[in-house]
Amino acid sequence: MQTKVKAKKKKRTFKEWINSRDGQKVLVITAFMAIPLLLLFVFTYLPFGKMVSFSFYDMKYVGAKKFVGLKNYIKVFTRDDCFKALRLSLYYMLGSVVQLGIALYFATILSFKTRGGAVFKGLMFFPYLINGIAIGFIFKFFYTRGFVFDTVLSWCGFNLENLPYWLKDQRINNFSLVGTSVWRYFGQNMVLFIGAIMSVDSELYEAAMLDGAGKFQQFRYIILPSIKTIILLNVILSISGSLSAFEPPYVITSGANGTGTYFVVMHEIAHTQQKVGLASAMAIVLLVIIFIATIIQRLLFKYVFTDGEPPVDSKAKRLADKASKF
């Protein structure tokens, strides 16, 4: 009887394994993973960890620092120029609702065959490509007394003496700044909506028209449910942008006359007053607020797009399926 002799595999050295195909594959994968993760850690997580540690100290950029515990966080909620500045975010949140409504309206129209639709898409998206600082200077002269906006209104029959100071009157100046943000960002939202609407199957529209559904019914029962993910994304981006509005009030008014948003006040505290610990605490509080707002939005959208029905528990559903089989 012939015996089978099993040849023992020769154990490769580390150098031989590295030069082999398997070793090269592992080396490339590890390199492509390690370099981005290293950059992410150095430029994102490490500075964030430093900022968290700074929020527990009374310190400046240069000099000694003193540990104060949670006092900086208490100041965020008690100082008039810190937490109360978040009230101005309500103006920008209201503007984001208008912004999303305009973007969804134009996206619905331009998603279908429209004469000159490509030109309108380009013109509406163009403001988003302009630098925020440049837009700030444009609207600073646009709203200045006697300049562009007042001149256009005077052509329409308005008396210049009866017009308000768009950047000084505290009843109207925040709405003027919000209009700047709406003009800049609604083109971005519109492009995202157009991409989502054009991905909807055209047969759904044909079936809806055969059933006698009008344009509004098609929009409500076909378009809205199909693009709910993009709507949620735009809402999250708009709300987080409203809480962190900085460029319009900083460039146009420098935060004067009651236009200093949370970011403008944080910039003032960090770079002018040199209170780095308090500014770091403000940044952490803002991050928590944005995180909570995002969770609330996801829950609301989950409820809205299920026609008001609560989500079915998966375990209960499995038990019900088993019971139905018996």
Number of DSSP-assigned strands:
2
The major β-sheet equals: 2 strands, antiparallel
Question: How much helical structure, as a percent, in the residues?
Answer: 55-70%
Q: Low-confidence runs (pLDDT<50, min 5 residues)?
A: 1-7, 307-317, 322-326
For the largest sheet, list the strands in their spatial order. Answer: 1-2
Here the CATH topology equals MetI-like fold
Please give a structural write-up:
The protein is an all-alpha fold and 326 residues long. The protein has one domain: MetI-like fold (Orthogonal Bundle). Helix content is 69%, strand content 1%. The protein contains 15 helices and 2 strands. It has helices at 14-19, 21-54, 71-78, 89-110, 117-129, 132-143, 148-155, 173-198, 202-210, 215-226, 228-243, 247-253, 262-272, 276-304, 314-325; strands at 57-58, 66-67. Strands 1-2 form a two-stranded antiparallel ribbon. A hairpin with a 7-residue loop joins strand 1 and strand 2 (66-67). Helix 4 runs parallel beside helix 8 (173-198), helix 4 runs antiparallel to helix 11 (228-243) and helix 5 (117-129) crosses helix 8.
What topology emerges from the helices and strands here?
Elements: H1 14-19, H2 21-54, E1 57-58, E2 66-67, H3 71-78, H4 89-110, H5 117-129, H6 132-143, H7 148-155, H8 173-198, H9 202-210, H10 215-226, H11 228-243, H12 247-253, H13 262-272, H14 276-304, H15 314-325
Helix pairs in contact: 3-14, 4-8, 4-11, 5-8, 6-12, 11-14, 13-14
Which short descriptors sum up this protein?
326 residues; mainly alpha; MetI-like fold; two-stranded antiparallel sheet; disordered N terminus; disordered C terminus
